[in-house]
Specification:
Layout (H helix, E strand, L loop, with lengths): L1 E2 L5 H14 L2 E5 L3 E5 L5 E6 L16 E5 L4 H19 L2 E8 L6 E5 L6 H11 L2 H4 L6 E5 L15 H7 L1 E8 L12 H26 L17 H15 L3 H5 L4 H10 L17 H9 L9 H21 L5 H11 L4 H13 L11 E3 H18 L7 E4 L6 E3 L2 E5 L3 E3 H23 L5 H4 L5 H14 L5 H18 L4 H11 L4 H12 L9 H15 L16 H9 L16 H11 L11
Parallel strand pairs: 1-2, 4-5, 4-6, 6-9, 7-8, 11-13
Antiparallel strand pairs: 2-3, 3-5, 7-9, 10-14, 12-13
Helix pairs in contact: 2-5, 3-6, 7-11, 10-11, 11-12, 13-18, 14-15, 15-17, 17-21, 18-19, 18-20, 18-21, 19-20
Length: 616
């Protein structure tokens, strides 16, 4: 960060020259001050350094336009503010100086000081949002008032500038007095409350700023979501990388799946569905205790950007659960952690699964020459890779045909195919869009983003990821009756294992009660029983249900392919996109925006049921 040693006329002119040429600046100012301004923002959030004022500065340091006034040369800062306001208000019609400070220790009011008649909607928008604080945080009894006064600062402080000076330089002065309820009488923060209170306050401020921009200026900001920082602080990238390194140090799905699945299957069928060999797992390449120590040494609490703080805290909790499960493979605790990780099986999802199995009979296929083996499928996958490479020459991916995997999967962006895998051509074309057109595609798009988490996956990304994958099968007329039945069977098998059923009981439930072939019943059961009870497979149907509901009211299929994240993250992804933190898609699947896709989305919005999605 550039350092400006003083606030002389020459230094102020240097700052204005940088703003004129680059439209943005980030520099250190005298007395430990800071100035950070990003492009095309007609406001500046201000905080004055003060002793024994723990936490207050952090309300502004995640802003895309802010100033920390240092503890020396206040007159110089006043001149700088007048100069910046005068320069930027010419281009944007008006310029808002918004100061934040802590009120008295016993204060129970949020006070908005500003020109109530000149900025009625902006101040009222802020007041309206702040008045909800008692609903958001139980146990608080705060009031919010608008004070129309010419002295818009703390009582023990000087004016940033006079009202007359503000008029002359195109500035509008507003301040927000915050009761310091986020710290105790010893100036120590209540860390969890402070984080949530700060995030609440920043969102309320941004709504008010957006109203000011919309009504009072010529700024072209699309939404209040776009007001966060475009340039994330280095601490964000450091923690993002460390979280990614921790997750990359182990392959979770690989380590919880049995290495002896072929022997288990052979013995189970040879014994007329009676004997189940013990699951043997691969040795752990990591020490769970050391990984957890690394995980909780990450100082996520130092991140003031609300969106990034939320995403990283979620991810840390998910990795914590995964690492715990690695150490508990084969035990009953593994199943309980699995329930927590994948949120269990709710009654509505079970009803959807039952409905599918009641309405959709299992299909039987006559012998056909059009059966593809693992090598033939890998050739189809490579053709799809070539299609992606046409869109982005940097795309690259590997295919692995392995004897020690029991299911096709994508791990760390690479495709793994069981050596004995066979499928019809229709199933193969559907799986290409499932595994390659969704899992590999979103991994690659995420890897082109500045945040590594979008290629690895934000917390709880699996349901949307698998929902997109199954939806892609539907989009290319490849979602078969048997495929949909398998997804439903996985849900009921998941509920059965939660209810205490063993391997043989789940197998018989699927085969005898729901009409699955022995092969399919075994595949569902063996997956749900790995680790000691692994209910991840419920997310396929769960994700399809969630995505179908989402698409009824949202026309944003493209953004769902920007990386690996959950439906609950869509607003954050939109925000980061609006802030220009995230990049546009690099590669897209074949079916995207086709006429066939348009017709299928229309059917979904008209209430298409899950059984009706099966291609006839």
């Amino acid at each position: 960060m550039q350092e400006i040693p003083d606030l002389s006329e020459n230094s102020i002119q240097q700052i204005l020259t940088i703003l004129k040429e680059k439209k943005e600046i980030s520099c250190m100012l005298p007395g430990m001050g800071i100035l950070h301004i990003e492009k095309e923002l007609p406001y500046l959030v201000i905080y004055r350094k003060k002793s024994n004022d723990k936490g207050t500065k952090r309300f502004i340091t995640s802003e895309s336009s802010y100033m920390v006034i240092g503890n020396s040369d206040f007159a110089g800062y006043q001149k700088l503010l007048i100069a910046i306001s005068d320069f930027l208000s010419v281009e944007m019609k008006s310029y808002l100086l918004f100061e934040i400070y802590a009120g008295a220790e016993d204060s129970q009011k949020l006070r908005i000081k500003g020109p109530a008649e000149k900025l009625p909607t902006s101040l009222e928008t802020l007041q309206k949002d702040l008045l909800t604080i008692n609903e958001v945080f139980t146990g608080l009894y705060l009031d919010t008032e608008i004070v129309d006064t010419i002295h818009r600062h703390a009582e023990d402080s000087e004016d940033l500038m006079s009202i007359e000076e503000a008029k002359n330089c195109g500035a509008v002065l507003v301040s927000l007095e915050i009761p310091p309820i986020y710290r105790n009488e010893n100036n120590k923060l209540y860390p969890v409350f402070f984080r949530n209170f700060k995030d609440f306050l920043i969102k309320a401020m941004h709504r008010s700023f957006f109203d000011f921009i919309r009504v009072q200026t010529t700024g072209g900001v699309a939404s209040f979501n776009a007001l966060g920082r475009k340039y994330l602080k280095q601490v964000v990238f450091d923690i993002d990388k460390q979280l990614a390194d921790i997750e990359k140090s182990y392959q979770f799905l690989w380590l919880v799946s049995p290495a002896n699945i072929h022997e288990i299957k052979e013995e189970f069928f040879k014994s007329n569905y009676q004997n189940v060999l013990d699951y043997h797992y691969r040795l752990l390449p990591v020490d769970p205790d050391i990984l957890k120590r690394r995980l909780y040494n990450l100082k996520i609490e130092d991140i003031d950007d609300p969106a990034m703080s939320f995403l990283f805290r979620e991810k840390r909790e998910e990795l914590d659960m995964q690492i715990t499960m690695l150490g508990e493979r084969g035990s009953s605790n593994f199943m309980y952690d699995s329930i927590r990780l994948y949120k269990g099986v709710d009654r509505q999802l079970c009803e959807e699964a039952q409905n599918i199995l009641n309405e959709v009979p299992e299909e039987t296929y006559s012998e056909s020459n059009d059966i593809l083996d693992a090598k033939a499928f890998s050739s189809l996958a490579r053709k799809e890779f070539d299609y992606f490479k046409q869109q982005d020459e940097n795309f690259n991916c590997k295919v692995h045909i392995r004897k020690d995997v029991n299911v096709m999967m994508v791990s760390h962006g690479e495709l793994y195919i069981p050596a004995d895998y066979e499928m019809s051509r229709i199933e193969a074309e559907a799986l290409i869009q499932h595994e390659v057109g969704t899992h590999i595609l979103t991994h690659y798009n995420g890897s082109r983003q500045p945040l590594k988490q979008l290629s690895i996956g934000l917390a709880d990304y699996d349901p949307l990821q698998e929902g997109l994958a199954v939806m892609s099968e539907f989009m290319v007329d490849g979602l078969t009756a048997n495929r949909l039945r398998i997804l439903a069977g996985r849900v009921l098998a998941g509920q059965a294992v939660i209810d205490g059923a063993n391997f043989q009981e789940i197998f018989r439930l699927l085969k005898m009660d729901y009409g699955f072939s022995a092969e399919r019943a075994f595949n569902i059961t063996s997956r749900i029983m790995q680790g000691g009870g692994f209910i991840k497979d419920i997310i396929y149907l769960k994700g399809l249900v969630l995505l179908k509901e989402h698409l009824k009211n949202n026309d944003d299929y493209d953004i769902l392919l920007a990386g690996k994240y959950g439906i609950k993250h869509t607003n954050i992804i939109r925000e980061l996109t609006d802030r220009k933190v995230l990049e546009p898609l690099r590669i897209k699947p074949r079916f995207l925006h086709s006429e066939q896709m348009f017709e299928k989305l229309k059917l979904i919005r008209n209430g298409l049921s899950l059984p009706q999605m099966v291609c006839k």
